[in-house]
């Protein structure tokens, strides 16, 4: 993997990790996180899916593609992404038609950060940073497999986007939300490498292969 691709992948994983709490804690109003998607072809961007609380399918959700660098090549952090999402949720924006498309049944909007003023961090954001850092100190060692994103596909179906040392590209793993979750997570590294489980989802441009583990 080239150093540029590795940097994008690392930042994707960092942003996903930072955003996870917004599955339950709204970003703005009743706008919650419903997914984080790796941009196709290792693009320097992240796709964030938002929707109402409790939405467990892409229908009715919106995906925003946000570049990881601004026009002056300044890198956006996960907190910048949160600020942009809050700005989008706080007011009505009319997006040019050439920036709107559809992916996985959702509206996909490609955002130009230069046209938005990010919402500032809150006291709770800063409190969470302090507490998270003490509980989970930063480490250079990356997990394997590494979580790059996720998407709710149904009431009992969650798609995980993973980067694994022994598997090329981005692999998606569909898992159930009930059952032997702890055992599944323990077995996940080995399950991802089993070629007989690997298929392709032609409708999903965010992964190179798919492993269905919903009935494991």
What would you note in describing this structure?
With about 220 residues, the protein is an alpha+beta fold. It folds into two domains: about 5-135, no CATH class; about 145-210, no CATH class. Helices cover about 25% and strands about 30% of the residues. The chain contains four helices and ten strands. The protein has helices spanning about 5-20, 80-90, 125-135, 180-190, and strands at about 30-40, 45-50, 60-65, 100-105, 105-110, 145-155, 155-165, 165-175, 200, 210. The chain has a ten-stranded mixed sheet. Strand 7 (about 155-165) and strand 8 (about 165-175) form a beta hairpin. Helix 1 (about 5-20) packs across helix 2 (about 80-90). The longest helix is centred in the first third of the chain and has 17 residues, at about 5-20. The two termini are about 30 Å apart. The mean pLDDT is about 90.
